[in-house]
Design a protein that fits this description.
It holds the Pfam family YbeY. The chain has about 170 residues and is α/β, with parallel strands linked by helices. The protein contains 6 helices and 4 strands.
Length: about 170
Amino acid sequence: MADICELDINDPRWNDIEIAKLAEIAFASVLAHHKLDTDWEIGVLACSDERIAELNDTYREKNQPTNVLSWPNFDLTPENAGAIPAPTGFDDSLGDIAVSYDTCVKEAQTGGISIQSHLTHLLIHSCLHLLGYDHETDADAQRMENLETELLAKLGIDDPYKNDANSGVHFG
């Protein structure tokens, strides 16, 4: 089995956090849940707020930093809102993810959780996006949050949405 994560550390502050190990664990849990083997590759850019703001502006026309961005290689989004994606028919690369050190640390501190727990949540969240999940409708958001909570619980991480008003985490 090859590594799932193809890591590009653009900001050296990520070197103090075991991002490669956390990404492998997060991605493997998502793939196992979907009964997919781990012979997939996901590119991860570990960057700063400055770099992710540039990417957010280029790809989403939002000139501001965000916690995480995802670029799926395939559109696996189900046709009906609230439906469960059926991730099939793609090659060996699911897509790419960028995660910002500054925003990740700030959100973890605001939420009173470890950077490792929060990063794992962001990686699971973004991996689900690569598999066709989204949070465009209330039904889709609830389905995605429930699955994230389930996967995090299996890894011994508390529900990040239990105190949603106080979490400081925002997607989209």
